[in-house]
């Protein structure tokens, strides 16, 4: 109950899905696809090797988490 109260206080929408069913998890699947596309674009634009893939994903995630999105 405490967790649900926290979600309500912070305006967080808590959603659950069945394990190993990407069809039910489309929001997360789209978010992951967006991160991969952003990382691929950064690596290509900077002309750096795939060795930096993990860093590119981390930077793409950080950038998107800091971006304000108004629905």
Automatic annotation (TrEMBL):
Residues 1-71 form the Integrase catalytic domain. It comes from Tanacetum cinerariifolium (Dalmatian daisy). GO terms for biological process: DNA integration. GO terms for molecular function: nucleic acid binding. This is Putative ribonuclease H-like domain-containing protein. It comes from the Eukaryota.
């Amino acid at each position: 109950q405490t967790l649900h109260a926290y979600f309500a206080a912070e305006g967080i929408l808590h959603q659950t899905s069945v394990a190993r069913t990407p069809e039910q998890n489309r929001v997360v699947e789209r978010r992951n696809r967006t991160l991969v596309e952003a990382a691929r674009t950064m690596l290509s634009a900077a002309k750096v090797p795939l060795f930096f893939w993990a860093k590119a994903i981390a930077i793409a995630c950080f950038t998107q988490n800091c971006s304000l999105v108004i629905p």
